[in-house]
Amino acid sequence: MYNAPAVTYPVGRSRFQAGVTLAVVLAGGVAQAVWWLQSAVHGAGHVVGAVLWLASCGWVIWYGLRTPQAQLVWDGQAWSLCAGMTSQLVVPTVIIDMQHSLLLCLRPASGAASWVWPAQRSHPVRWLALRRALFNPAADLVERDQTRLAASPQA
Fold first, then answer.
1. Which of 112, 110, 117, 111 is nearest to 72 (CA)?
2. Beta-bridge partner residues of 11
3. Looking at the predicted structure, is the pLDDT value of residue 20 above 70?
4. Which residues contact 39 (CB under 8 A, 6 or more apart)?
5. What's the pTM?
6. Which neighbouring-strand residues pair with 102?
7. How large is the C-alpha radius of gyration of the chain?
8. pLDDT tens digit sequence for 125-135
9. Residue 52 in contact with residue 85, Cβ under 8 Å?
10. What is the pLDDT of residues 101-122, one digit of tens each?
11. In sequence order, what DSSP letters do the residues of the chain get, joined into one string?
């Protein structure tokens, strides 16, 4: 069976992620404004709604700025996420595929999953190689074998 070639691709903050985030934040702001304008009486619910919207905006900005710049690496056998001097084995799952950008959930063996938005404009030359590796059926078999071995009592 054909195996996808090794590829290293930069992941981290992307313009598409920023655009989606901005659209959601603006939609929340418009909903808040319409609610305020349509209401005859402004009560505690309006204030709580505005505070929650502002808090979520602050959290989204903080989270977006903390998104690390890293490299997603497929070596032909396993996926890893390399940031600085650290490297962690991960299992990527494609959540959204829009041809020019992807939303990936990267699950490590232990710890919290990471969410990344690789975009074609980050490295156009390697984009098709990344997509081939992500959608490679042989990669799924390798990852399932690793998961099964890690879960078995003999391992």
1. 117
2. 70
3. yes
4. 46
5. 0.71
6. 97
7. 20
8. 999 999 999 99
9. no
10. 999 999 998 888 888 889 999 8
11. ---PPPEEEEES--HHHHHHHHHHHHHHHHHHHHHHHH-SS--HHHHHHHHHHHHHHHHHHHHHHHPPPEEEEE-SS-EEEEETTEEEEEEEEEEEE-SSBEEEEEEESSS--EEE--BGGG-GGGHHHHHHHHT-HHHHHHHHHHHHHHHSTT-
Phi then psi for 120, rounded to 5 degrees? -60, -35
d(CA 140, CA 86) in angstroms, rounded, equals 24
Query: Could you tell me the two tokens for 1?
Result: 């069976």
Q: What is the rounded CA–CA span in Å between residue 27 and residue 128?
A: 33
- β-sheet bridge partners, residue 88: 81
C-beta of residue 72 within 8 angstroms of C-beta of residue 130: yes
Task: Count the neighbouring beta carbons within 10 Å of the beta carbon of residue 32.
Answer: 16
| Cβ contact 32:42 at 8 Å | no
